Amino acid sequence: MAQLRPGPPEAPFPCPLPGAREGRDPARAIKRGPSRVPAELVAATQRDRLYDGLVHTVAEKGYANARVTDICQAAGVTRPVFYALFDGKEDAFLATYRHGTHVLLRMMDAAYDAARDWQQGARASLGVLLELLARVPAFATMALVEIDAVGPRAREERARLLRHFHHFFAQAPTPPPPAEADELISAVVGGIYSTLCGYVADGRTAELPGQLPHLSFFLLAPFLGPAAASAALLSDSGATAKAP
């Protein structure tokens, strides 16, 4: 099963997450003058550049201090274009967040679906999440830390995202009593999410992939039991182990 592997910081990585590129990336420059580029393509390119510009601006300045002018400058896009695409800063933030989390979930789903069983799939999807956040720390800051400054609509978006993560537990073993499956899953998802937020807020986003063994154990143990969870992780890493 293919998994994303950490690479050197300078290594190219074709990541579609917002913030993976600079908004003013010359490869997406739209030439002036008469053009046969369809208007829909121009708008899509400008929107993508604004996604990137917003991520970098919010990560650098914080949501409260990020101005529409700053976002436009980071994206190389004019204010009239910004307001043709978004109602304002909050609307642009939410659109960027939805787009970025959709990308994350799509890549996590692919890793999960390629696995041979639930425990491998859950661990693989978690590994993809950690790796992508580490590779695009500006998006991690924007989506996990600065979202708290946006308001009720952003909190609703985050709640929907966390609820979607329950999908990765659909094939998990039934937890032992007295645990209720849905409540247990919410606790596990919330615990992992809180850990990620802490690392990102502390400026330790690059360390997230190294937390995969610990977070995987936290994910598996409530459903498999501690001994079986340890054995599963050792087996996945290529070692052999016997549960006592």
From TrEMBL:
PROSITE patterns: HTH_TETR_2 (PS50977)
InterPro entries assigned: Homeodomain-like_sf, HTH-type_TetR-like_transc_reg, HTH_TetR
Compositionally biased residues, Pro residues: 1-17
Pfam families, per the entry: TetR_N
Alphabetical list of Gene3D superfamilies matching this protein: Tetracycline Repressor, domain 2 (1.10.357.10)
Keyword S-adenosyl-L-methionine (UniProt): no
Annotated stretches, region: Disordered: 1-30
Residues of the signal peptide: none
Residue ranges: DNA binding: 67-86
Domain (HTH tetR-type): residue spans on this chain: 44-104
Record has Transcription as a keyword: yes
Keywords: DNA-binding, Transcription, Transcription regulation
The protein's name: TetR/AcrR family transcriptional regulator
